[in-house]
Design brief:
Low-confidence stretches: 1-6
Organism: Chromohalobacter beijerinckii
EC number: 2.7.8.31
Number of helices: 15
Family: Belongs to the bacterial sugar transferase family.
Largest sheet: 4 strands, parallel
Structural class: alpha/beta
Membrane topology: Multi-pass membrane protein
Helix content: 40-55%
Keywords: Membrane, Transferase, Transmembrane, Transmembrane helix
Number of strands: 10
Length: 458
Amino acid sequence: MTPRTSGSDMLRMAMRCFDAGIAMGVSWLAFLLMPSLAYREGIEYPLLILVGSLLLPAMGELFGLYRPWRGRSLFSMFGVYLLSWLTTIVIVSLFLVMTKSTHTFSRLWMAISAVGVAGVGLVLRGALYHYLRRLRAAGRNLKCVVVIGTPSNVERIQSHLTSMRYIGYRVQRTILVDDPQSLPGRIESLVNEATFKRDFHEIWLSLPLSQGDTVKCIAEQLIALPVDVRYFPDLTDVRLLNHRMTQVADLFSLDLNYSPLDGASRIVKNIEDRVLGGLLFVGFFPIMLLIALLVACNMGRPVLFKQHRHGLDGKRFRIYKFRTMRAHTAAPCLQQAQRSDPRITSLGHFLRRTSLDELPQLYNVLQGRMSLVGPRPHAMDHNVYYKDVIADYMQRHRVKPGMTGWAQVNGLRGETRELRDMEKRVNYDLFYINNWSLGLDLKILAMTFKRGFFNHQP
């Protein structure tokens, strides 16, 4: 049996048509349901619907929306889809402004169409994503792989794929690198057997970096096969942060540690912070004025608590919170707020439980010194202490600190009584950095409003 190589291309084409069809159908339905528009003559509306519907998959292609999502996060796909959708809206809007034709189209219709396309697109894509996961878990729509590696690595990959059947990969056969003398002959036999007909889609190599010469020899033999060959280096003993393959000075490098928020990703996150941060600041402004008045009446001035924290790349910035404690003598530098802390007022307890004391940090977000989502900034003295006892602690500062974060919505907030509490929080922060996407940010924000807004820690 020979796997059909055109299947992926057909699926990508189908998904482009799928997105274009959703955009066209939703926009046209909105047009027909608005009586003031349905009987307009001319081709302006149909033409704009056609252009926008074709532009959406074009932007999706640009941002990698149609690359394989097998085994990848649903929320990452949502983020890329929303980015493609937003770019389409911006381009269409700029075109209408430049051609001075904005008056031709109903702004209400444009808003309904835009929101409708985003909503329907996300719902249907989510449904398709979960349908494919169930299909693959049932043993259909699978990709078969040949795994070449050391016995321990092959066993690790097999165990991983068995525990995640919904990803849709199945180990078709294995070639163990246990006898260096016979290995070239076994690889040659595989190449001769599968040059034109094969029962697998990909070949995975999984060997330690110390066996680089073996990897090179295997890769040179496999170049004769027209299939994807992936190398999974055994880096289980190395702590990685967003590792990737890059080319520097015409040399290929495996970056073991780099910030994920560079280039387009940094622009996307900055837009997210400015747009959503601005909307939240305006929305919460009346509440912040009320809290400021209550704090002034209850505890006097100053209303805000200001303190320096370490931000992106360890640079200092001043963070703002509503004051929750009475005036007191400075506590030891590493002392954290505790349950029934006498320094905290009754109003302060309420503000801390509801996280309303954090609202002034929206100003830090608009300043560009914080993000809506990211590792929570710790006191500077805590950073000085923990950087020496937790090896990868300072990797938290590879991104901007956030008002909320992956650790916080998973209950890791407040006082850290033991070292392992902080280690667990750091692990969650590094997971966020290592898996950042616009979709993950939106998920964390949704979780914050759903269950992370109320804090039972001091």
